[in-house]
């Protein structure tokens, strides 16, 4: 029984370490300032906020804003450059808006309230493919990925490992 307890303890420690290492990150856009029109009149605060961050697939962006005062739309590079949100890839009008980064590459976000993007309320980020979670294939525009698609998660892996450890007890 003592040998089994040692194996179980090792498995639990390994599972806890893997669970922590595989967890996706959550980024609150512009931290305490939230998703807002910069007081400087350009997107400088958003460029500064992005500096030093490594966005990966599976991470989540949180856009904190007051309903009716702001929104967030993911747009193409052309939409970002021209502050045109008429054909967004994604649009959220209720804050806080949580957006999970499902694909790698460049992602562009703007506020579509008139004048806000032109005043600098826009964010451009580069998303890398996570080594911890498999990337989700891009969906055709206007469609959503299937909700029943299987994926390997840290929580699922932890559950399997814990079940294996418990099996050693018996």
Automatic annotation (TrEMBL):
Specify residue ranges for compositional bias: Low complexity.
129-150
Record Gene3D superfamilies: Cupredoxins - blue copper proteins
State the UniProt keywords alphabetically.
Answer: Copper, Glycoprotein, Metal-binding, Signal
User: Which branch of life, at top level?
Assistant: Eukaryota
Q: Which GO terms describe its cellular component?
A: plasma membrane
Q: Name one GO molecular function term.
A: electron transfer activity
Residue ranges for the region (Disordered) are 128-150
Phytocyanin domain: residues covered: 25-129
Q: Which Pfam families match?
A: Cu_bind_like (PF02298)
Q: Where is the signal peptide?
A: 1-23
Protein name as annotated: Phytocyanin domain-containing protein
């Amino acid at each position: 029984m003592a040998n089994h307890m040692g194996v179980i303890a090792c498995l639990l420690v390994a599972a806890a370490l893997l669970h922590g290492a595989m967890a996706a990150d959550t980024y609150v856009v512009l931290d305490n300032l939230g998703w807002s029109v910069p007081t400087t009149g350009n997107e400088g605060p958003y460029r500064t906020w992005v500096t030093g961050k490594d966005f990966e697939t599976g991470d989540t962006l949180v856009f904190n804003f007051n309903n009716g005062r702001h929104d967030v739309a993911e747009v193409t590079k052309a939409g970002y450059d021209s502050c045109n949100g008429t054909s967004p890839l994604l649009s959220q009008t209720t804050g806080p808006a949580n957006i999970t980064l499902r694909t790698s590459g460049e992602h562009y976000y703007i506020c579509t309230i008139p004048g806000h993007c032109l005043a600098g309320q826009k964010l451009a980020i580069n998303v890398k493919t996570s080594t911890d979670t498999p990337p989700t294939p891009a969906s055709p525009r206007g469609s959503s990925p299937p909700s029943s698609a299987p994926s390997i998660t840290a929580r699922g892996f932890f559950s399997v490992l814990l079940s294996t450890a418990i099996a050693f007890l018996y």
